[in-house]
Amino acid sequence: MAPALRSPASVASFCLVSLALAPLALRAQTQPREPITAVIVQSPPVVMPTQTVIVVQPVVVAQQPAQDTVQIRWSTSWYPAARLRSVWGPYALYRFVGYGAEWDSIVHERDVRPVGAATPAWQAPTPGVEMPPDHRIFRGESLMGEWHGSWYPIRVLALRANGGARIRYDGYGREWDEDMVRSRLRLRDSDVDGPAPAVPSAEHLRAADPQQPPSIGERVVVRHGPTPKVARITAVDGPVFWVHYLGHNRSFDEPVSLDRVQRIDQDNAPTR
């Protein structure tokens, strides 16, 4: 509350001051105000059409084969493959069509043919012995079983009413078990040296040293795709080691590089 005006002089002074300030107040009310600028931050920022945006993406360059697809003999079947690089002399590294790098194999030139070529007679072995009609299959018997045109050593788990059997592939887990009709079964021949031995545990294996490579006749473990198998060194040709997989037909013998080979502690890891 303003203090009360106590005299005529005070009233006159107040009126004079009010008249002097009135134009200033009126001018302040009529003065145009400056516009208020609103700053809006958008997240993510809006890219105007006039701006150029450059997006850099990494480009993965796949390893291209050095030549067109050919056919590679593995066991008694032929598979399409592409040549990756030369290894040594008549040997080259190939990748099977539809398979990953873990199946890359060194192949001798004699086991390579153009697509559609006829199979030479000497390259068409028939592993196993035709099963006589009167042969009675028994549980636990070691036979040869057909899978996609190739023959593998198997063991009979159970008999089936149609004359076939439930089987397990030597060296493979139970997830590969299947029923086979009699026409897919054969007796083993002399090229198969019994059931495949079990692979020793990791503590009994060591990487092969290039300075002291395995010798001919030595038992080793060879990486065969994703599955290791016990094998015997049968020949050495430069940097290439020929191996025979124990328990498998000799048509599966193949050349391998030393990086696929592990040596076995022969004293503490019996493999049969």
Question: How does this model look, in words?
Answer:
The chain is mostly beta strands. Among the domains are: 70-121; 125-192, SH3 type barrels (Roll); 202-264, Roll (SH3 type barrels), CATH 2.30.30.140. It is 8% helix and 33% strand. It contains one helix and 16 strands. The protein has one helix at residues 8-30, and strands spanning 70-74, 77-88, 91-96, 105-108, 112-113, 142-147, 150-159, 165-169, 178-180, 185-187, 205-207, 219-224, 227-237, 240-245, 254-257, 261-264. The strands form three sheets. A six-stranded antiparallel β-sheet has the order 11-16-12-13-14-15, with no helix packed on it.
Q: In summary, what is this structure?
A:
By secondary structure, this protein is mainly β.
Write out the strand line-up for the largest beta sheet, numbering strands in chain order: 11-16-12-13-14-15
CATH top level label of the domain at 125-192: Mainly Beta
Compressed to H and E, one letter per element, the order equals HEEEEEEEEEEEEEEEE
* Residue-averaged pLDDT: 78
Structural class: mainly beta
* CATH architecture call of the domain at 125-192: Roll
What CATH calls the topology of the domain at 125-192 is SH3 type barrels
**What fraction of residues sit in β-strands?**
25-35%
Low-confidence stretches: 1-6, 24-28, 35-50, 52-66
Number of helices: 1
Q: Please state the overall shape, judged from the principal axes of the Cα atoms.
A: globular
Which sheet architecture does the biggest sheet show? 6 strands, antiparallel
**Quaternary state, please?**
single chain
| C-alpha Rg (nearest Å) | 42 Å
